[in-house]
Request: fold
Amino acid sequence: MSITSALVLYAVIWFMTFFVALPIRLQTQGDLGEIVPGTHAGAPEHHHLKKKAKITTLVAAVLWLLIAGIIFSGLIDVRAFDWMTWMAGA
Reply:
């Protein structure tokens, strides 16, 4: 795995983890009963983005270490996903 693919793998893991973490502990205006005129009731009031970004960074680092370790160990390689046996001759 090159440096570029390692960074791309980390970025993909980070964003996927962040999108999973976004709705956790989200308090909307509708939940609090204080809807600002002209906004949707589902608009976030307290989103805790800084805390979620920090937690996401830590979780993504652990997941990246696990996935990169599996890739570097050779336990799973690209041929494991060759269900149509297109790479049999290569």
